[in-house]
Amino acid sequence: MDFGISGKRALVLAASRGLGLGIARALAAEGAQVLICGRTQEKLAANCAEITAAGGKADYVVADLADDGFVSTMVEAVAQKLGGIDILVNNTGGPVPGTAEEMDEAKLHMFFQSMVVRVITLTNALLPQMKAQGFGRILTVASSGVVEPIGNLALSNTLRGALVGWNKTLSSEIAPLGITANLLLPGRIHTDRIDELDGANAKRQGKSLDEVRAASIKTIPAGRLGTVEEFAAAGAFLCSAPAAYITGTMVRVDGGAAKSL
């Protein structure tokens, strides 16, 4: 299938590793010109070199979602390095694990800014360009925790849940303009983040990492962890031309793990 995005310009947030990097690679493989951002210049430069060596087009900008100037930095980078935008992939790092009772005002405020406020304000800042050209794809990476809350991830369940209402509202407003907005929900996709969370759960439960991992896999009908490439393929399709009639929805990539309909 031709995704129809060759030559399209894509910004992918938090793409120094993991899911963000996976989506950037997938978009570049489809011919999109990709701009990635993250906090570590060395990783970003290496990622761009890898994408370029594979025949893609990629550039990067060092930026931190936690910084007050993040949105203005990204808007300027899009103008200078891409000359405009067709595809926006909103991806953020996950917050610290913990229970609902462990959420205090400082944590809520800090992660709300980086995981919700920056996503919404950057999207609003880039939308006029998509409206003017009559084409746009907005893909926001959230978590399967928004449909089935995940234990010991109270902050993530809470803050990513806010993006559900925002995405649905936005999608209805921009659908007549040729712009789609969807959420992509990862389940147990094998990344460094999953290793970190499993390690934290192992410590909390007094078990080994292997025990925690095995118990987790038993809850997944597919019987294994997902790969970044599988997740990224779904993301690239939602950003494609053929996906023009898919908007305002949440797509789970979880091996069937979520028990909700």
UniProtKB/TrEMBL annotation:
Recorded GO MF terms: 3-oxoacyl-[acyl-carrier-protein] reductase (NADPH) activity
Keyword match Oxidoreductase: yes
Gene3D superfamilies cross-referenced by the UniProt entry: NAD(P)-binding Rossmann-like Domain
Record keywords, A-Z: Oxidoreductase
Coiled coil: none
EC number: 1.1.1.100
InterPro entries linked: NAD(P)-bd_dom_sf, SDR, SDR_fam
UniProt enzyme class: oxidoreductase
PANTHER family for the chain: 3-OXOACYL-(ACYL-CARRIER-PROTEIN) REDUCTASE, NADPH-DEPENDENT REDUCTASE BACG
Family note: Belongs to the short-chain dehydrogenases/reductases (SDR) family.
Protein name: 3-oxoacyl-ACP reductase
Organism listed in the record: Allorhizobium taibaishanense
Source organism phylogeny: Bacteria, Pseudomonadati, Pseudomonadota, Alphaproteobacteria, Hyphomicrobiales
